[in-house]
Specification:
There is one protein chain. This protein has 336 residues and is α/β, with parallel strands linked by helices. Helix content is 37%, strand content 19%. An 8-stranded mixed sheet has the order 3-4-2-1-5-6-7-8, with helices on both faces. α8 links the parallel β12 and β13. α2 crosses α3 and α8 crosses α11.
């Protein structure tokens, strides 16, 4: 049975607070276990921890000997975000294939890709295009390019949609934004709540950057703590995602799988996530957001069905992408 080791810098679900990237990695590991792998995750740093989380053995350690032993005992190392350097050292020392999971367009990510990997897993097509220099959707000037990136074997695996769609949206429930960190643009939620006093609104705190989250107080607005999806989306009418940057949107996928219409900001990630028939609105155009919300609530059943159809597409796409990843990973076995 092949073994995969995930090296992460800070977070793993049910052990620490998490964001969408951490949850995606967890889902990939769990799905690989169902396809015949043994999966281990190690959090580099923090107080010691050891235990099974789902079907994955999770450690948290700073001990270089333990990190080395885990790297030596695996067949493939996968990593993302800030743990890439640690994973790269372990892969090089013990001659293991290195897999880099890419969620963003940061210059640091581009630089790491320039150092090479045996396989890159991009979380969207648009981010794959961005790093391959086939497109520059953000309009940023690229000061450094790494032509070798185009030659790295890669595969696109969107954040897995693992829940079969079902209708649970409530047209009378609160209009909700999940995660009140500044990048998620909670000010748009608060402006909508301020001018639509007859509609309930809800803000859900995010699982990271707790002290930096922006909060407000209106009679028709409630703020909930970070929680599990079944609680977050219970009786919700509409999810808004007015993020200034969003590589994809796990929140949108979770909402659509429950028949909850989503209104998203006009970013490459949200366009790819929501598809052509969902609401895509200019990020800072308040009148457009207000109009989209009014139209969605007025024709709620129609927009709920659109969400369900998109969720079904993503649900059917997920096993195909995971099977492709499984094949790519198995092709690395024995090559080092």
């Amino acid at each position: 049975m092949p073994k995969i080791l995930a090296v992460v810098q800070y977070n793993y679900p049910q052990v620490t607070t998490v964001g969408g990237a951490d949850t995606m990695l967890r889902d990939i590991l769990e799905q690989l276990v169902s396809r015949g792998w043994t999966a281990t995750a190690v959090i580099v740093g923090g107080p010691p921890f050891s235990g099974m989380v789902g079907n994955v053995q999770v450690y948290r350690t700073k001990d270089p000997q333990q990190l080395a032993a885990l790297a030596n005992a695996t067949d493939v190392i996968i990593t993302h975000l800030g743990a890439i350097d640690t994973a790269r050292k372990g892969a090089k020392r013990f001659n293991k294939p290195l897999v880099q999971l890419v969620h963003n367009t940061s210059s640091l990510t581009t630089a790491e890709l320039g150092r090479g990997a045996d396989l890159v897993v991009f979380n969207t097509e648009w981010i794959r295009r961005y790093h391959h220099l086939e497109a520059n959707p953000l309009g940023r000037r690229r000061l450094v390019s790494f032509p070798g990136i185009k030659d790295i074997p890669n595969v696109v695996v969107h954040p897995p949609a693992l829940e079969p769609p079902s209708f649970r949206g409530n047209p009378l429930g609160p209009v909700t934004l999940v995660n009140q960190t500044p990048n998620k643009n909670p000010e748009m939620l608060y402006r909508l709540a301020e001018v639509n006093q007859g509609i309930p609104f809800r803000g859900v705190r995010g699982g990271y950057d707790v002290d930096g989250q922006v909060l407000a107080n209106f009679p028709n607005l409630e703020i909930l703590p970070f929680g599990i999806p079944d609680v977050i989306y219970q009786n919700v009418s509409v999810i808004i995602v007015p993020s200034r940057y969003e590589s994809y949107s796990r929140v949108a996928v979770e909402a659509m799988s429950r028949g909850i219409p989503v209104i998203g900001a006009d970013t490459p990630g949200l366009r790819e996530c929501l598809g052509l028939r969902q609401w895509i609105v200019p990020i800072e155009n308040f009148m457009a957001w207000d109009a989209a919300l009014e139209a969605t609530l007025f024709r709620y059943d129609e927009h709920s069905q659109i969400a369900l159809r998109r969720a079904q597409q993503l649900y059917e796409q997920t096993p195909e992408e995971l099977n492709r990843l499984n094949t790519k990973l198995r092709s690395l076995l024995g090559n080092h």
